[in-house]
Amino acid sequence: MNAHVSPSDAPAGLYTPEERLRRDNSVWTLVQGILAPIQFLVFAISVGLIIHWWMTGSWLMATHVSVVVKTMTLYAIMITGAIWEKDVFGAYLFAPQFFWEDVVSMLVLTLHTAYLVALWGGLLSDAQLLALATAAYVSYVINAGQFLYKFRQARIGAASGQSSREVAA
């Protein structure tokens, strides 16, 4: 297990040939490929509801439900993503190749969890809750961008017929 990793420990490319093979053969790659667009769809609906609430003050319950559902999909993708990372890189989190993505994922998870705690604990007003959800969603967009960038790197490496290490060099 990689107990102490840092971004500088990351190899030059995204995947070694062995890691690429493990990625391609892992059932968790498919699970991630299914969950990611589902989570994005839930996110998009929830953003629409949050905007609607900010503009009209209506549909509050639906808005809260949408944020809870978004958070549940986030938990699902985080748990299965950690299993995927273990399958491919040998560490549940913070493998050098995905170190910064995992760091930001922890922020995303923390903000979403804080929303649930505040909602169920009655700790914040509705406006404060939805401001917190908005902050969580901004962090999610940043994190999603990180992962999309990594997937693009991997695709470019695969399409060129070179290993991703050669592409990055």
Overview features:
169 residues, mainly alpha, 6 helices, 78% helix, disordered N terminus
Describe the structure.
The structure is a single chain. By secondary structure, this protein is mainly α. The chain has helices at 17-25, 27-56, 60-89, 99-121, 126-159, 164-168. It has one domain (17-157). It is built from six helices and no strands. It starts with 16 loop residues before the first helix and ends with a helix. InterPro entries: BCHF. One of its GO terms (biological process) is photosynthesis, dark reaction.
Number of domains: 1
In the predicted model, the low-confidence regions spanning at least 5 consecutive residues are 1-11, 163-169
Q: Please report the distance between the alpha carbons of the first and last residues.
A: 27 Å
Q: Compute the number of helices.
A: 6
State the secondary-structure class.
mainly alpha
Strand content bin: under 5%
How would you spell out the order of helices and strands? Answer: HHHHHH
Average of pLDDT: 88
Query: How much helical structure, as a percent, in the residues?
Result: over 70%
How many strands, what sense, and barrel or not for the largest sheet?
none
The count of strands amounts to 0
The gross shape turns out to be elongated
Our Rg estimate from Cα atoms comes to 18 Å
